[in-house]
Amino acid sequence: MSEAVAGKEAGKHAGKHKQADKHAEKQADAQAGKQPEAPAHRVADQRSGPPRLQQYYRDQVVPRLRADLKIDNVMQVPRISKITVNMGVGEAVADKKVMDAALADLTKITGQKPLITKSRKANASFKLRAGLPIGAKVTLRGTRMYEFLDRLISIAMPRIRDFRGVSARAFDGQGNYTLGVKEQIIFPEIQYDQVDQVRGMDITITTTATDDRHGRALLEAFSFPFRK
């Protein structure tokens, strides 16, 4: 038998012994009651409890707002119901790759797959036909909503150039607040050297408040950086 053939046979036997050893280890772990290790991305998704801001709202914000706004029923205390992130991508009419890049950025920022928005009417001056993709949006609720709000207030806003606070005039009269962001690179999930171009977005925080005073009190309780 030649040396090459002998090497192949030895490799086959070694592979069989390795698989047998792995099988034996799995059986031993099963008998001992040991659970197999989960993949790294699944371990990262497991949470020990509710998001920090959600727990903070229950423990600190609700009692404070009941006292400050003189609310008797705890169910009437204003709360954040959803956060909507909209990104306009008008350049996608001429280049479809721009839309792919925008969707990738929005997915990294929100942790959720965006919904592509399409034009409703044709506009000859902008060379726009009805039904063309021109933007993307994400609606966040529950756990992801609180996690996004935490990153927005604690990390993203302080990274805005010459940041001196946000305007308190952006309420819509019903307690909902809209914030315009000029650069998506303020979010830590976006790597500047991998960005094809800078894009802005609109962030709308929808609350259950009945007026702007209650809506502002709610956001201020979360340390929202309003301009003084």
Please, could you describe this protein's structure?
The chain is an alpha+beta fold and 228 residues long. Helices cover 40% and strands 14% of the residues. The chain contains six helices and five strands. The protein has a five-stranded antiparallel beta sheet. The protein is globular, with a radius of gyration of 26 Å. The N terminus is likely disordered.
* Through-space gap between termini: 87 Å
Mean pLDDT: 82
> Radius of gyration, Cα only, in angstroms?
26 Å
Percent range for β-strand residues: 5-15%
Shape: globular
Helix content: 40-55%
Strand order of the largest sheet: 2-3-1-5-4
Low-pLDDT sequence parts: 1-8, 32-45
SSE arrangement:
Layout: H1 3-31, H2 40-45, H3 52-68, E1 80-88, H4 96-110, E2 115-118, E3 133-140, H5 142-156, E4 177-181, E5 201-207, H6 212-221
Antiparallel strand pairs: 1-3, 1-5, 2-3, 4-5
